[in-house]
Amino acid sequence: xxRSLSEKLTAPELDLLSPMLSQEGDTWTASFxxxxxRTALQPIYSISHKRIVxxxxxxxxxxxxxxxxxPLHLFQLPSSNAENLLLDRLCRYLHIRNYSGLxxxxxxxxxxxxxxxxxxxxxxDSFFGQLLRQTGLPPHRIVMEIVEQPTDDAEKLKETVxxxxxxxxxxxxxxxGAGHSNFERIWNLSPDIVKLDRTLxxxxxxxxxxxxxxxxxxxLLHQSGCLVLLEGVETxxxxxxxIDAGVDFVQGFFFRRPSIDLEALTRTPANFDELLDExxxxxxxxxxxxxQLVGFFSGFFxxxxxxxxxxxxxxxxxxxxxxxPAVSRCYLVNDRGVQxxxxxxxxxxxxxxxPRFKPLESTSxxxxxxxxYLRQALAQPESLHITAPYLCxxxxxxxxxxxxxxxxxxxxxxxxxxxxxxxxEPSISQY
Length: 431
Known about the structure:
By secondary structure, this protein is an alpha/beta fold. It has 2 domains: 3-270, EAL domain (TIM Barrel); 288-420, PAS domain (Beta-Lactamase). It has helices spanning 3-10, 14-17, 71-74, 81-100, 115-118, 126-135, 154-167, 183-189, 198-206, 208-223, 236-245, 262-265, 272-309, 314-317, 319-323, 347-352, 372-379; strands at 21-24, 27-32, 35-46, 51-62, 68-69, 108-113, 142-147, 170-176, 193-196, 227-230, 249-250, 327-334, 339-345, 384-386, 390-392, 397-408, 411-420. α1 crosses α4 (81-100) and α11 (236-245) packs across α13. The radius of gyration is 29 Å and the shape is elongated.
């Protein structure tokens, strides 16, 4: 690659790339170092809409014998930054040419672009604005995917992302959750969409704790103002994990593999009705044990509150609760969320104590108002509430909490009872 060509790429002109493209029927191909490049698309589905909302464009390379060349080998061919830039822009040019000719005139086109490419030159990738003007593809139909990896010029990357947004494109962070991922890039670039790396899904498939972390990441990204796409969905179980995690969009072999038959892809349905019906059934089954716990312990709570109303002490009033093999501890909270007296711990709770967390054991005068179970009980007294499993701060163990608000001498109080989510024998599996 000559120095003059490198300079031309720094100040890009479409005329440099146009001779490298040719049309075959309704599709376009490109030539690069003796290889023929074609566009492959993979559908992206919205779970709530139950349909395709976009396509990721992927490059496919073929040699003179029409044998496929791995993308990895294709991107190893450039020997300079200028050639890297040329290949990147050639791929985007090819993808947009092909996508502009599809019948689908609604959905997004996701385009991959590396930080090295978008931070090259001094014109904030003005090539792309020229490309959109020439092809007539509206910028609001483009999602620019920035690969999640370090860049030598973070400020230049930020400027380039701002340029895409100014054009009217959406932006996405790709492969979040792998390698160098962190929320700092989310804060700095404010992407519209975050694509979670498939390693998060793989771990969630194998480990329930990783599944909870995945759900938490999705929640944090939503709170950051980002839509979330989970890629790499390959099995039905992974599709169910994606649905449960609350992601907005999914992509993967389970739904549709990438294909160079572009028009066929626009007519690719996915049976989300069946998946969502299965999710609802599974979710119903998951909730059943919770309902059983509420129903089972209602009598215990009524007995304890009757005794408290008659002037009994906490340890006497809660004796039946504390003797139950599933109960870890009981405590009483006033209407301001502050605990009255110290916690009563059952034999199960004593056995489950971890001495490493001893500084957290005493909870006298602790303030629990931030806890949802406490606020629910205060807002809806006389009803027994139960939480999903969560990490309890008094010992860093997973538990569920039952809470019931009641009135004693005109004052609102809340009786709380913790049950270990993963208790030692004997367990609560009988429910």
